[in-house]
Design brief:
The chain is α/β, with parallel strands linked by helices. The chain contains 18 helices and 14 strands.
Length: 415
């Protein structure tokens, strides 16, 4: 393979410079040896199912699939790889107790890949979304290691670039065992740049395969006509926006209540004090306060937010009025609850691209638009009912992806 030969020569030329620069650039040098396929320790003692999610969003997308794979294939090691430090941190946080080994995906040079394969002994490699690595594809094909893309997607912008270079990507795509995409549009784009139509198919979106479990959940008591709004996973600077908006709509909707849940527990006291400044009646979940006697309750307990979405009319998803990139809106949508988000949604941009095509999710630019959308959901019954129906519809259209991948794996390893 010409690319493999040229890339190896280039690798040998740039390696000394890369090493020197990495001493002064922490971002470039982080996990440098691991990405070279070095410092990985002894080879694993049995075959591995290897997952690759480049960063946080891809790791979160793979989370349920990895958990299910561990249950269904106990005789294999579960290896999780990422391409970024934040992805690595998320993998350890969410999947550290499930994975047998977590490391970095190797640089796309034959030497690095050879060392990596020797360490993890892959039975199959599963790549999240659309990461195309020529040498990985070539080496996997040469060693008869099945290579999959799951949750495959391609933005219009990326597609334009890839289409122009389809002569380069076509032979790479042909080496993938199977490409499973999020939608018909993604499917068609990949096929048009060279993916094999026989082995490229729609699977849906893994992020929609989440479970609803209300076991041992005690909802907050409220009056029959109360309407609860949840501000979930708020960050510094967002609480003021939410509280101002709530006070504004409270003037004409005296039966509304607010449950506010800071993303970081260490901010609970500060947020509680902000709530007190509204002059409304404020309680805490940890004190078992309820909405019978309070207008605002601070959710200062751990692990309850995802279940609390079941009791609200709609939710504001935090981390979206700053540069955090937002949090998962599907935790509310799964209960058929519409969501509102600020403009920063890059952590879940694929999800927002789907739900904002309907009324299941709306992105607002500022506090004024937030107030308008909250009022619309509270006072326009036809609009609100349609938004709830849209939540159910997007799940029906996108769920089932996890089972598709598990079936593929079972056929692959003859279970």
């Amino acid at each position: 393979m010409i690319y493999s030969f040229i890339s190896t020569i280039l690798f040998l030329i740039i390696l000394p410079f890369w090493f020197i620069i990495s001493r002064f650039n922490n971002k470039l040098g982080y996990a440098f040896l691991e990405k070279l396929g070095l410092n990985l320790g002894k080879p694993l003692d049995k075959k591995s199912i290897v997952f690759y999610g480049v960063s946080v969003g891809e790791v979160l997308a793979l989370q349920n699939l990895i958990t299910k794979t561990k249950e269904q294939f106990p005789d294999f090691n579960i290896v999780i790889t990422t391409g970024t430090k934040t992805g690595q941190e998320m993998a350890n946080k969410k999947l550290g107790e499930i994975a047998d080994y977590i490391t970095y995906f190797p640089f796309d040079f034959p030497f690095c890949i050879k060392n990596f394969f020797k360490k993890v002994n892959p039975e199959v490699i599963i790549v999240a979304e659309t990461e195309l690595w020529p040498n990985i594809a070539y080496c996997a094909k040469k060693q008869n290691i099945p290579l999959y893309i799951v949750n495959g997607r391609m933005s219009d912008r990326t597609y334009g670039s890839y289409k122009k270079l389809s002569f380069f990507f076509k032979p790479i795509l042909k080496k993938y065992t199977k490409i499973l995409t999020q939608s018909e549009s993604d499917n068609n784009k990949l096929i048009s740049i060279g993916a094999n139509p026989k082995t490229t198919q729609v699977m849906g979106n893994l992020k929609f395969d989440i479970n609803v479990n209300l076991d041992n959940f005690s909802p907050i008591e409220k009056n029959n006509d109360d309407k609860i709004i949840i501000a979930g996973s708020t960050h510094s600077g967002e609480d003021e926006i939410i509280l101002d908006a709530f006070q504004e709509i409270y003037k004409s909707n005296s039966n509304i209540k607010l449950l506010i849940a800071p993303r970081h527990p260490e901010r609970n006291d500060a947020v509680f004090n902000l709530c007190l400044k509204t002059g409304l009646k404020v309680g805490k979940r940890s004190n078992e306060d309820n909405f019978m006697n309070n207008d605002i309750i601070l959710l200062d307990t751990l692990g309850e937010l995802s279940k609390m979405y079941s009791i609200c009319e709609f939710a504001f998803i935090g981390g979206s009025f700053n540069k955090t990139g937002g949090h998962n809106p599907l935790e509310a949508n799964i209960f058929n609850k519409p969501v509102i988000s600020g403009p920063s949604t890059n952590n879940f941009k694929d999800i927002y691209a789907i739900i904002t095509r309907t009324n299941a999710g709306v992105i607002v630019k500022n506090k004024e638009e937030l107030i308008n959308q909250m009022n619309k959901l509270l006072n326009n019954k036809e609009y609100y009912n349609k938004a709830c129906e849209d939540c159910e519809l997007v799940f029906k259209q996108n769920q089932g992806a996890l089972d598709v991948v598990i079936r593929e794996l079972k056929e692959l390893v003859n279970i």
